[in-house]
Amino acid sequence: IKTIVLYKPVASEIRQIISAYRIVLSLERVGDHAMLLVDFLQNIKSLKVYNELSELIISMFQSSMELLKRALQSFVQQNKENAIWVIKNSSEIGKLNKIMLKTAIDKSKEFDEKKKVITSFITIKEMVDNIERIADHSENIAEATIYFLEGKDVRHIPYF
Q1: Cβ-count burial of 110 within 10 angstroms (0-12 exposed, 13-18 middle, 19+ buried)?
Q2: CA angle at 138 for the pair 135 and 142, rounded to the nearest 5°
Q3: pLDDT tens digit sequence for 20-38
Q4: Which of 55, 64, 69, 142 supports an S-S bond with 83, CB 3.0-4.6 Å?
């Protein structure tokens, strides 16, 4: 508000300010999800279950981090192509989440149904939900970049 009042920015500068604000909110949520991931890791009761699913979890996390990195680069470098790439590819994390759940269900047939195994599956599901949310926030950042660059609000509409 101070910037708007004191410096009288033009429309593109106001869009940049609003976009930066939206990005900061998304980054704060990403940090919250990262902290939750640490908590979830500490609460896994069965390392055997985690080890069976860790490759997929790590792949999801790396993909989410790539989305986040490219989303932030799209804003800093004013690169619309990176923003579009993030928006198009963010749904892949949701697909990986569904694969992980199916894998966990399939694996549950191999393990006895003890409480710690079930608890571990639930904890891991919560972990990957948080990873998916990080990807969603990356998409929000990319959408804020497009708003900044073009003045188009592409949230919740099929932009591509």
Answers
A1: exposed
A2: 140
A3: 999 999 999 999 999 999 9
A4: 142
110-160 pLDDT, tens digit each? 555 566 777 787 888 888 888 998 999 999 999 999 998 988 888 877 655
Distance CA 84, CA 116 (A): 42
CA 80-86-90 angle, 5° bins: 155
Distance between CA atoms of residues 32 and 129, nearest Å: 13
Which amino acid, one-letter code, is at 122?
Answer: I
Best CA proximity match to 107, nearest among 42, 58, 56: 56
Query: pTM for this one?
Result: 0.71
Residue spans of alpha helices (H) in 77-159: 80-89, 91-108, 115-150
